[in-house]
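Q: What would this chain look like folded?
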Amino acid sequence: MSDESYDLLQDEPPRDEPAGGSPPPTGLVLVSTPIGNLGDMTIRAIAALKAADLVLCEDTRVTARLFSAYGIATRLAPLHDHNEDGRIGGILATLRQGRRVALVSDAGTPLVSDPGYRLVRAALAEGLPVAALPGANAALLALTLSGLPPHPFLFLGFPAPRQAGRRAAFAGLRAAERAGLQATLIWYEAPHRLAESLADMADIFGGRDAAVARELTKRFEEVRRAPLPDLAAHYANTAARGEITIVLAPAPADTTDSNDLDARLSEALQTATLKQAVATITAATGLPRKQVYARALALGGAREGKEGKQGQGSALDPPRAGGPWNPTT
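A: My prediction, written as structure tokens:
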């Protein structure tokens, strides 16, 4: 559909406002829709969609089912990540004519990990009216069901799909927590990446309490609450389905001290080389790598002093056939 297709609305009279109650907002209206259960559609949302001259949606097939359930006959047009920039000019032209344009996503609140932000920014920049109607949101519902502190919270969208980017982002959050951030953390995640993301979270954030909310408001709704390592182990062996939200408890007020760092290093070095252990602990604590590496070397020297007289190797020694220990390997 080209931008010109929106101009077809100029030949149609504006839709009448429904009788009774306050009239639907004018201009661009962001309308929240159910995240699963169609019964969660609000009366105001139905009225706004019926009164709109045009409804923008991610997938016309998905929104058509919602329209069928509530007898909504307004024209639909797609707006998604791949065409949003190209559609903005035509939509703004329609709004300048005084038409009502509603924006919905496939489920939940528009713009929250869904398209529409660039359109809203463009409309605001031109001084065009923008309104929003509240409704269902998976992140907030999962937060209230998680049993974790409800505020403050930080919604982070979807983790990076690739492990390197994902772990880097988690490590950055851990560093922010060490600098003072204390908030319940919330992510959306695709079912095929859930187990991997939980495993990475367990490595970086440790054994904190968390919750995985799945298929909220639907027939097979499930909220599983457990420490991160337990959730990672469960979903490593159990395939997840449906829409998923992860909620993680805030960082403990107690930050990592030298004794805790020593304990973490000692545990990591039981099964990993020095280089691997330093990388893991650096990511988990958010401490500078040089600090963790220096502490690992100091810890190794102390152990060598205690154990060397008995002819025992240091706990930092990686398995080797012979030759001197090289801490850079």
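Residues 258-310 form one domain.
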